[in-house]
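An example makes the point: we print one protein in full, the chain in one-letter code, the fold tokenised, without further comment:
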Amino acid sequence: MSGVPSGPETRESPADGIDAKVGALKQRDTYPERPARIEAIETHMSWVFLTERHAYKLKKPVRYEFLDFSTIEARRHDCEEEVRLNRRLARDVYLGVVALTALPGGGMRIGGEGEVIDWLVKMRRLPAERTLQEAIRRGSWTEDDVRRVASLLGEFYARAEPVEVGVAEYRERFARDIGANLAELEKPEHRLPEEQVRRVHAVQLDFLERRKDLFDARVEESRIVEAHGDLRPEHVYIGPQALITDCLEFNLQFRTLDPADELAFLAMECDRLGAPSIGPLLFETYQEITGDRPPEVLVLFYKGARACLRAKLALWHLREPVVREPQKWRGLAADYLGLADGFARRLG
């Protein structure tokens, strides 16, 4: 992409490993702006370094079933995709891709003249208090805030080109996902209520079979688009200008969605945080912009399926080499399962 510096062929070696890179990126001399303070945040797949004005994201050299960041070239490509895709909903936030280089005399520098040893996404830092998640916690969000978010999304979905998918393929995706969620949530070591787990997933599978017409209609009406893919309140920024960051850039299939599914995901997360009135506002504004009125029962199904997926992902934290706060993740999974149970009872 334009703005990405060219350099010698990149390489991997123990001296340039993730620990050394993280250590260097915690040092102010590594940055062109020489920040006074650096905050480092670790996630599943990356490290994020916050300075006073910017955020820099370094991808971990990991490989999973659904992504491969194991080479520098793969990480550079993903950085480019992250910038390209996120500029759709937060154009001025994603500033570009920058090189991390090895200095001839030792040490590392962002944008230096040495050998390229990795790539980072450079972003404008946004105030954490502007996230919808934080506004819900503080009780400071307004209807106008939510309508601006929904307008941004509605216009985004209205512009998006439909993605071709077969009706059977669309339903089969849900069947596979429900099966995978069930397989994880019913494991005895998670200590989730067995009857509740099975009932929730049985209702979802029954609805998927019994109401094929609803899913087929979404495909036949060309509603499936390349969307955001990870539309959570912590990625939504409210205020005079709504912004949405952190789309799911590494897997096209994961962000190929029905907008009603994506909005249901955001609404479900707002329900969990104690703001159930946000969902109706989102859908009302979306409908005004697009003319699309997804059936309420389909939205309930989407919410329940998303809640089960989030429960599964919470439990996946227990697979990490060092598990921090295991009870937190088990508790979060139970919360999501409880939400899914409530939606299932309304579907049943």
Q: What stands out?
A: The chain has two domains: 14-125, 132-347. Residues 132-347 form a domain with the Aminoglycoside 3'-phosphotransferase; Chain: A, domain 2 fold (CATH 3.90.1200.10). Confidence is low (pLDDT under 50) at residues 1-15.
